[in-house]
Every structure is written in C-alpha cells, then in structure tokens.
C-alpha cells in the first residue's frame, strides 16, 4: 500500500511530530513518503492508499492557509478508498486546542476512511511516544483490514 504524510509546520513542532510518526512506520518495516504541504503534488492524491495530515492551528482554531488547497481537494469528492489520519500540535492555553485537527477530522470522516487523530501539546516529547505508536498502529490495522 502506498502511504504518505503531508504536513504544515510554522514552529517546527508539527514537523517534528511528522518525522516521529514516519520513523514509527519505518520501524514497522513500512515505506512512507513525507512532504511539506507546499511540496506535495495534489494531482498524485488519487494514487495513495493512505494519507496522514499534520497541521498546526492558526488564529482562533483555523486551518492554516497553506493547508486549504489540500482540504479543498479532499472535500471535492468522496475518497472511500483513502485511509486517513490527522495529527497536529497546539497549545492548550488557547480555547480551540488543535482546532485545525478537529476541522480536518470533521471533513474527512464523511469523505475518507478516517482511522485516527492525534493531538500533541507543543513540541512532541518522549512521553508522547506511546500515543504516537498507537496512532501508527491504528493506521496499519485499518490498512490490514482493507488489504
């Protein structure tokens, strides 16, 4: 199965989380591509079996502007074959902690085969590794069911 991570990061926290997730997949022997959203070729989206979206939250819980084209593409039609997961970092000081993760989750659950979400406080820590491993395992389980 063809799997990719597409992420956006302004502080480096979500980028760090994306790389930690990618390493967990590699430890399980799976090949996974990883793209900053600006470098992801949207026209290749239909070629993937799994898409993991990483986003920070902007403003009052909004999806960052650079993520809007990906979100629009995903909302444009049904992608039942596409197994998805959404992850992000945020600061729980704000009332809409990881609001962009919630926004992607809400739109993906009706358009894709959404498997899991993950929210991490600020910079991912060693203490987050168990939750990261669970995130990866849920994606793998969903992919196994459909294989």
Automatic annotation (TrEMBL):
Signal sequence range: none
Gene responsible for this protein: ykuN
Cofactors demanded by this protein: FMN
Native source species: Robertmurraya siralis
This protein's name: Flavodoxin-1
Keyword Electron transport: yes
Residues of the Flavodoxin-like domain: 3-140
Family classification: Belongs to the flavodoxin family.
Keyword Transport: yes
GO molecular function: electron transfer activity; FMN binding; oxidoreductase activity, acting on NAD(P)H
Role of this protein: Low-potential electron donor to a number of redox enzymes.
Keywords, ordered alphabetically: Electron transport, Flavoprotein, FMN, Transport
Pfam families: Flavodoxin_1
């Amino acid at each position: 199965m063809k799997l990719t991570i597409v992420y956006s990061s302004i502080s480096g926290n979500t980028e760090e989380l994306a790389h930690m997730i990618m390493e967990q997949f590699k430890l399980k022997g799976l090949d996974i591509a990883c793209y900053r959203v600006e470098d992801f070729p949207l026209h290749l989206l239909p070629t993937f079996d799994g898409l993991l979206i990483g986003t920070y939250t902007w403003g009052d819980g909004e999806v960052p502007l650079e993520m809007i084209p990906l979100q629009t593409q995903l909302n444009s039609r049904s992608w039942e074959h596409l197994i998805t997961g959404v992850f992000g970092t945020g600061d729980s000081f704000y009332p809409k902690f990881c609001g962009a993760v919630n926004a992607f989750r809400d739109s993906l659950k009706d358009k894709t085969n959404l498997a899991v979400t993950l929210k991490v406080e600020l910079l991912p820590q060693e203490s987050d590794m168990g939750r990261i491993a669970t995130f990866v395992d849920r994606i793998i389980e969903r992919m196994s069911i459909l294989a």
